[in-house]
């Protein structure tokens, strides 16, 4: 496999696309001899014949057809790889698990677009502990629970109140706020991977029963049916207003810390600008 390189694959694909060695050489800007040597070395490396040559045309063999199809995918992947490695200054992907930036989401997008026209912003929802950072799905991530992975750096950008999500016809929905003790006998829906609510919010002797959920839409559906409650960051209420559900502040629960996370050894060039903008938005309230 070490004898196969991208130059050989490009030559093979060019011959099939252009129809002749001569036209492939013109398309690639190299000599016809170089094209011939590249394909010959590829056939030797693979131990198979890829092209059928006649005095009038060059066509792929049955094996050649399959190899050309795979070669196209390999070359396309290389293009994507190069784009991924060199797009740091032109694209910014910010991951989040559930609720983006709550009421600051729209302002963040609009202010970023106005001030950084050369860097396209994309918000991406990934329900993982690192909100897509570890998976390579984003460049920066908004997280609401501590990241213990030492590969990531984090910085606090703001705090959000904890709210209780209830069915609209729940007796507690008539109150302006609730306490943790009011919820101790309810079924608490939790997302153990990314959620901010755990039984540890309650004293050991009065913790609610829990049921696990993995998606915010499923969470909302169960709550609206009156089968359970949720305790969540304020941003969830801003991001997911839903008929049949009300959100009430939990007045004796600690606020949720909102942090920005990044790769320590490869921070995105826009990191500092994002930190400053998010901190400003949260500080303004």
UniProtKB/TrEMBL annotation:
State the superkingdom.
Bacteria
Entry keyword annotation includes Transcription: yes
Cross-referenced Gene3D superfamilies? Periplasmic binding protein-like II (3.40.190.10), Winged helix-like DNA-binding domain superfamily/Winged helix DNA-binding domain (1.10.10.10)
Q: Which Pfam families match?
A: HTH_1 (PF00126), LysR_substrate (PF03466)
Q: Where is the HTH lysR-type domain?
A: 4-61
Which keywords, in A-to-Z order, does the entry hold? DNA-binding, Transcription, Transcription regulation
UniProt-recorded Gene Ontology molecular function terms: DNA binding; DNA-binding transcription factor activity
What cellular-component terms does GO give this entry?
protein-DNA complex
Question: What family does the Swiss-Prot or TrEMBL record give for this protein?
Answer: Belongs to the LysR transcriptional regulatory family.
Protein name as annotated: LysR family transcriptional regulator
Species in which this protein is naturally found: Streptomyces corchorusii (Streptomyces chibaensis)
Q: What is the lineage of its organism?
A: Bacteria, Bacillati, Actinomycetota, Actinomycetes, Kitasatosporales
């Amino acid at each position: 496999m070490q004898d196969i390189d991208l130059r050989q694959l490009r030559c093979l694909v060019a011959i099939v696309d252009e129809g002749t060695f001569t036209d492939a050489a013109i398309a690639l800007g190299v000599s016809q001899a170089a094209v011939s040597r590249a394909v010959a070395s590829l056939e030797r490396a693979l131990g198979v014949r890829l092209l059928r040559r006649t005095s009038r045309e060059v066509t792929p063999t049955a094996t050649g057809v399959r190899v050309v199809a795979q070669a196209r995918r390999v070359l396309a992947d290389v293009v994507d790889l190069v784009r991924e490695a060199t797009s740091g200054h032109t694209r910014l992907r910010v991951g989040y698990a559930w609720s983006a930036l709550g009421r600051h989401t729209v302002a963040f997008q609009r202010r970023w677009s106005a001030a950084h026209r050369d860097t396209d912003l994309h918000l991406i929802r990934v329900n993982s502990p690192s909100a897509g950072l570890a998976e390579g799905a984003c460049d920066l991530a908004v997280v609401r629970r501590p990241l213990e992975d030492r590969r990531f750096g984090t910085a606090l950008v703001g705090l959000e109140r904890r709210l209780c999500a209830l069915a609209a016809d729940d007796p507690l929905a008539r109150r302006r706020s609730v306490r943790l003790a009011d919820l101790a006998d309810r079924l608490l829906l939790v997302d153990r991977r990314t959620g901010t609510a755990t039984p540890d919010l309650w004293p050991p002797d009065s913790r609610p029963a829990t049921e696990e959920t993995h998606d915010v839409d499923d969470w909302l559906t169960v709550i609206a049916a009156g089968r359970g409650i949720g305790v969540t960051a304020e941003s969830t209420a801003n991001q997911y207003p839903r008929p049949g559900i009300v959100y009430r502040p939990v007045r004796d629960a600690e606020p949720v810390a909102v942090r920005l996370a990044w790769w320590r050894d490869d921070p995105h060039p826009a990191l500092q600008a994002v930190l400053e903008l998010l901190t400003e938005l949260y500080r303004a309230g």
